[in-house]
Structures are given as C-alpha cells and as structure tokens.
Amino acid sequence: MAAPEKETVKSELPDPKEVAKTYAEVAQRASKLLADHIQKQVKKGLNTPSDELGIAQAFMDMMGKLLANPYRLAQAQMNLVWDYFSLWQHSVMRFTGMGGSPVVSPAKDDKRFKDEEWQEHFLFDFMKQSYLIAARHIHDTVSSVDGLDDQSQKKVNFYTRQYIDALSPSNFAMTNPEVFRETVKSHGQNLIKGLNNLLRDVEDGGGNLRVKMTDTTAFELGKNVATTPGKVVFQTDMMQLLQYTPSTDKAYKRPMLIVPPWINKFYILDLREKNSYIKWCVDQGHTVFVISWVNPDERLAEKSFDSYLLEGTLAAVDAIVEQTGAKEINAAGYCLGGTLLATTLAYMAGKRDKRIASGTFFTTMTDFADPGELGVFIDEGQVSSLEKKMFERGYLEGSEMAGTFNMLRANDLIWSFVVNNYLMGKDPFPFDLLYWNSDSTRMPAKMHSFYLRNMYMKNLLKEPGGIEVGGVPIDLGKIKVPTYFISTIEDHIAPWKSTYSGARNFGGAVRFVLGGSGHIAGIVNPPAANKYGFWTHTGAKLPDTADEFFTSAEQHPGSWWTDWQAWLEGQDASKVPARDPVKGNLKVLEDAPGSYVKTRLDAKKAA
Fold this sequence. Notes:
alpha/beta
C-alpha cells in the first residue's frame, strides 16, 4: 500500500522542470519590462516630484489642525486603545471556547470578508476586526478636523479611504484565508500565475499597470453585445446616428433619440437582448435612434462643447426629421449625454425650435454645486495640470478618466481584481458590463476644459445665460417641454440629490423618479428582472428639497421603465406604420452598431 501512496503524493507535486521553466519565463519578462521602463525614464529625464493633485498639502494642513488640538487627538487614541482592549478580550474568550459578539463587523455589502473563515477561524477573525477597528478610527479622526477648508477635507477623506482600502488584510496572500488555502493547495502555482497576470497587465498598459477586469476576447460587438438590428443612417466627424429595425407593425408617431455620454460607448443600453433598453424600446413600438460618438484623437483637439451640440445632438435631430418626416421627436440623455441634451433643449428654446417635444434624463446633473466625490479631482490646480497634459496631446485619454471612476469604488473595481488576478492566479470572468466599462473613449481637450471649468468649477449651466453655445445664451428655465428625470439612490457619479436640484431649474412640467441601486444597475433595470424598485411623488409640483421629496415619495416595486413608458405615452400615444431604416429618406451607410463604436485604442501602439 505504501508505493501507491508515494505515487499519489508525487503526482500532486508540481514538475520541478515546469516550475523552473515558469520562473525563468517570469524572470525574463520582468527583466525586459524593467529595462524598458528604465530606458523610457532616461529618455524622459528625471522630473522633480510634484503635488499636482494637492494631496500632500491637504494632509499637511490636516496634520497641522489635528496637532493643534492635542486633547482631541489623545481622546481619539484612547478610544482606539479601548476598542483594541475589547478585541483582545473577545479573542481570548473565543480562544477558550466561549462565545461573544464581535467588537466590530463589516458592512453587509462588504464583499471582502465573505469567506467563512473570516468569521470561523480565530486568527483571521482577529485580523479582520483589528483592521476594521483601525480603519474606523483613522477615518473618524481625519474626517472631523476643525478648521480645515472643504476642498482639503474632501481630499483627506477620499485619499485616506484609498489608503485604508489598500491595506485591507484581504489584499495580501498570507492574510487572506481564500488565497492562503489556494497557495497551499496549488503549492504556490496561483502566485506564479498571478505574477504572470501582473506582468501581462503591465505590458498591455505600456509600462503602466492596467488591471484587467474581464476577458475581453469573450465579446464581439454586433455578435454577443450591441446586437439589436439596425443601420447607420447618418454621420459627422463627431458621431454616427443609428436607427434600429422595428419589431412591431405600428410605431409611435414621435421617433426617439438617445444621447449617451461620450466617456464610454453607447452600448451600455444594448448589452444583451434580455437587459437591452434599446431593444425593449423597439419592442414597445418606438422608432429608436441613438448617437454613437467618435473616439477622438489629436485631429479633433479643437472640437468644443459647441461642436458636440451642433454636430452631435442638433445634427441628429435634423437627420431624424429628414429620415422619418416627423415634425416632433422625443429625446433621452444619459449622464453627460443628459447634460448635453439639457443644453440642446435650452439652445432650441432660444431659437424657438420645437422639434424635441419631451426630454428624458438618466442620472443627469445640471446643477453641479455638489458633485459628490468627483469634486475631489476638480479644483484650479488639478484642472490646470490636466489642461496642460490635454493640450499637449489634444485629448484626455479615456483610461485616465476610467481610473478616476474606478477609485470611487476601489474595493469593487480595483482590489477585488487584484485579489482574483494576482493572488488567486485566476483569469477574470467574462462579464459584458465590465467589458463595456473597459471600453473608454477619449475626449477633445477644448471640450473637456470647457466642461470642467464651466459646469463643475463655476456651475454656470444652472445660471440663466451663464454659458453661450453657438451664440445662444443657455437658460434652462426656458425649457417648457415635459421632462422625466430618473436618478438612482446609490449613484456615486451623479448624486441623486444634485440631479434633483438641477431638475427644479427647468421651466416645464417635471416628473422626478428615484430608482434603486446605482449609476448603471439602476438604469439598466429591465421589468423582467423585477429588481430594485423606484420612488415617485404624486403632487403637481416638486417639493423644494430632495429630502422633502423622499419623505413624501411613494415606493413601487420593479423597474422604472414601465413608469417612463406610461408617462411618455401620456404625451402622445398616436401611431403610424413602423419605420424601417432602409426605407427612409437617408442613405444607409452600414449595419449597426457601426464603425465608430468599434474604434478602440491599441494600448501597445500608444505606448
């Protein structure tokens, strides 16, 4: 019996030759990357470290204010010591077999500590609670410093959270029970494969780490994402206009235009058939058009916010009217696309152009007084530094903006993939939403500078005549068409209370709906899923504040899509024969999803 046992043990051990070969390959690739990086730095020359984001200055100010109040600092330290004493007491009780409630527990939605051993194993439970105690006290101490200006306080809070998240025991091989088990089980092969994954991501990022979130090879536009049938019927330097093939015999008289943001591609609204907002609208009988924005390069550096309106939304309206013969259309805008749509409606009101008969806004800000945590990245110093980089190359790189958004939810969008890819040694799971999230788009320097300064920094869009577009003063109060605002309660990009404040600046009848979940999931929420729910207000006039709205709002189960459909049908329910894009007045250029959406940046070539 002994021989088979030895044979079994031997078969479980990795082949030493394979291990040596793997290590050699990793060492060779790592050496090449290091050499290339050094050569690039030599060519660039040595740069003096700078604090472009103002982080160091903010923390220096915070420490100065904190040390000026030694009593409060001592009190915070004593509270920390007391909690650690309680943890030791709890741990000793557990070690001796006695029960007891934990001193601190992770939030219910904290996925970092979902493995059972974080609760069941004495040592891992101790590390978890020790970390959570320290994290809470550090954050509470730095977030309540007297005398610190608002912008510095926001930076301190945000970057302290980044620091705390990075130091979580879940992010290290020897203190994460799941990684520890896998390391023992695979004899360390997970860490070797993880290092290979790390080197791959650095190579793909041209020397910068670009964490891979999903298997991008599992998706192909027009094949398993962005599959709703349609045609490209019009294009400019800024966009292509897609019209979708009808699935009903009759269609609503008013065609529908969707204006997506130009930070990512439009197909967030057309990922798969079962959760495609575009497909659902087509099936309801809408003649759906959507703008597919170009991925600009240095040739479009001088394209401005005016260009996105005049050559984007307004050109799309012209094309839809010509294609269908309709005199009125409905329009919907998502996030930044909604901000552009609001500006377009105000522009058209100034021109007495009534072709857009209603406006729908998905998670759209038009009042930027409180932009949430995005405000951390927007002040004079940071915007000036960003402008310098943008104007040198003509655009803002999409991956830079994506990195900013990922930091807002670092545990979900950064550290979870670090653990999966580099510590567990696994390949990222194919996920259509994360495929889209990685498909970022550049932004012309001139346009983005205007947007940051006039919207975020000066908050001029909400001021009558605060900005001009195409020589027309923009006044949201002149928008008299009925509008529908859908925001989401957990939105970290367009905080719903800010979108509510902006909705009250419109001059027409406004229906404001608050959906469950966040910026994406709360919008891409098909009725068949029966998830999240939404809140509505039944009064004729919106309450003065968002808090008053929520207090008096009525909650409904399911998706806001059906509520929106009923609202839109209430504007005009008349129908006409369905409109096939190939039978319209415009020439079909190509099949949907079009060529603009398929233009992706090749990171290796760019590097």
